[in-house]
Amino acid sequence: MLVTVYHGPQIDAAKDRGAMHFDALPRCGDTVQIEQLSYLVEQVWHTPSPFYAGPKVAVLISDAAENALEMRLQALASA
User: Fold this and answer.
1) Which pairing describes strands 57-64 and 2-7: parallel, antiparallel, or unpaired?
2) How many Å apart are CA 54 and CA 42, to the nearest integer?
3) Distance between CA atoms of 49 and 1, rounded to whole angstroms?
4) What is the pLDDT of residue 51?
5) For 28-67, how does the pLDDT look when each residue is reduced to its tens digit (9 = 90+)?
6) How far apart are CA 25 and CA 66, in angstroms?
7) Would you give the distance in Å from CA 60 to the centre of its chain?
8) Which of 15, 43, 69, 77 might form a disulfide with 60, Cβ 3.0–4.6 angstroms?
9) What are the pLDDT digits (tens) for 1-21?
10) What is the largest CA-CA distance in the chain?
11) Where are the domains of the chain?
12) Other C-beta atoms within 10 Å of 6: how many?
């Protein structure tokens, strides 16, 4: 499935990583591998357009899942 991928903390500030092929549609909370790094899928939305032959779905991914988990654990430990 062809999916438009955005990378960033929020969609307003996200960087367009381009269209990528996935075996199955990623869902919120899924971890996806891109260029040998793991990313967490934060949002998934439909992008319908009868005039555009490209991707019809977009996802927002956050920083590498391992790094995000490690940062959360450190924050909890310091609280």
Assistant:
1) parallel
2) 22
3) 16
4) 82
5) 989 999 988 889 999 999 988 878 788 899 999 998 655 6
6) 21
7) 4
8) 43
9) 899 999 998 889 999 999 999
10) 52
11) 2-78
12) 18
The sign of the torsion formed by the CA atoms of 42, 26, 7, 16 equals: negative
Q: What is the pTM of this model?
A: 0.75
Long-range contacts of 28-35 (CB under 8 A, 24+ apart): 31/65, 32/59, 32/61, 34/5, 34/61
Read off the tokens for 73: 């654990």
Q: Which position has the token pair 């949002």?
A: 43
Contact between residue 78 and residue 64 where contact means Cβ atoms under 8 Å apart:
no
Cα dist from 56 to 13, 32, 49, 65, 69, whole Å: 21, 18, 7, 25, 30
Higher-confidence residue: 62 or 68? 62
Q: Tokens in use for 9?
A: 């903390």
Which pLDDT score, from 0 to 100, does residue 40 have? 92
- Asked whether 65 and 38 are in contact (CB, 8 A), the reply is yes
